Amino acid sequence: MKNLFVLREGCSDLESKMLTERGRAQMSTQAQTIQSLINGDTISLLCSTAPATLECAKIFEEAFGVSAVSHDLLWSGNGSPYRKLFNCKQATDIVLQCESRTVVVITHSEYTDKWLPALSKAILKKTTRQYLTILKGNGWRLDCELGGLTLLTTCC
Known about the structure:
Mean pLDDT: 88
Radius of gyration: 14 Å
Order of helices and strands: EHEHEHEHEE
Low-confidence stretches: none
Number of helices: 4
Number of strands: 6
């Protein structure tokens, strides 16, 4: 794996749980940003089974011409089958099984915030500090070849 992108789902409506116009714009921006960073590499697209992340994944499916693989395990919030059972190791194993040079994971705050140090240790072989909570529609890029970590933000 060359690049790993872990994105927090875009802004969504509290009642319908679906993306707002802003959330769709955030995900379109992230897809364009990632396309510019990966130089045509193939991607694996992973997401949780939450309605908003499935909708985010559709935007990426259209942008990259791939199908997303959804996992209940990548969602531990309200309505999740894994409610309060956040598991860094199992989530990391899902990512490490991907054979593409670039992996994009669309998930939730518990993963974008708490999972990052575990991923850095497993993939980059170095310990990183705990990161701050990121806003919806934003994410992290782990450059697995250079060992770098970059925050990806949207201005939508």
